[in-house]
Amino acid sequence: MELSESGKQSGWRDYAASEWDQRKPITWLHDWDFWKYCADKFAQNGPILELACGNGRITRQLALAGFDVVAVDINPHFLNRAVDAIPAELRSKINFHLQDVVHLALDKQFHLAMMADWAFPAILTQSDQRQFLKHLHHHLLPGGHFAFNTPFATTRQLGLISMDDKLVWEQDSKRTFDALTQVETNATSPYPIRLRHNTLDDIRLLGELAGFKIAEQYGNVDRRPLLGVEGDDLTLILRKTS
């Protein structure tokens, strides 16, 4: 498997499936209504490309809802768990692939791609983000859509203080922030992870450079208006325009 710098550095490649199961078990479906909304509106009865599928909690729901899915993840432990989560009678509806999404390479195009659970910020540099969107553009049919969510940089950074020449969150000093790279390191579990903070303008520009426009934007997966207030993230749907 070809690995990007983000794939090497984000922490997700070797993250324990059992640890992720504690954070987002198969039965955690508080965001399912949003992904179902996207599938119903944009998939056009075709297969759905699910990026960073993790333990398969959304993969499973899509299959139960009647959709075929091509699911990709960088972590082999996650994929093993995802396969086990799929009822035997539904396994023919899903194809799993072990890949770094920055180097996405599938011989297929889709009407809809989706990426849940704040997986987009695991792409840690603008260079890798541009490469990812370039490859994703190739994998979407004309007018195809990409739905994802990611932290809202300004509200995510509330509570930062300086401590020992580092920026940390006042209530959690195991989370540090590099203002130069816009990368947060979260070491609150035995498996540290890193994620990049993006503004709405960052994503709008990155999308336009890759041939996308923002089609819908929300402040969370409950589809609340995006106001830029505490509690908001960036829940976005991009449309392929060229």
What does this structure look like?
The chain is of the alpha/beta class and 242 residues long. It has a single domain (5-151, 198-240), classed as Vaccinia Virus protein VP39 (Rossmann fold, 3-Layer(aba) Sandwich), CATH 3.40.50.150. 29% of the residues lie in helices and 29% in strands. The protein contains eight helices and twelve strands. The chain has a seven-stranded mixed beta sheet with strand order 3-2-1-4-5-12-11, with helices on both faces. Helix 5 (76-85) links the parallel strand 2 and strand 3. The longest helix has 14 residues, at 126-139. The mean pLDDT is 96.
Tell me the fraction of residues in β-strands, as a range.
Answer: 25-35%
Order of neighbouring strands in the sheet with most strands = 3-2-1-4-5-12-11
The CATH homologous superfamily = Vaccinia Virus protein VP39
Give the % helix.
25-40%
Uncertain stretches of 5 or more adjacent residues:
none
Report the major sheet. Answer: 7 strands, mixed
Number of helices: 8
Oligomer: single chain
Domain tally? 1
| N/C terminus separation | 29 Å
Number of strands: 12
Question: What is the CA-based Rg, rounded?
Answer: 17 Å
Helix-strand pattern, N to C? HHHEHEHEEHEHEEEEEHEE
Give me the secondary-structure category: alpha/beta
Properties at a glance:
seven-stranded mixed β-sheet, Rossmann fold, 29% helix, alpha/beta
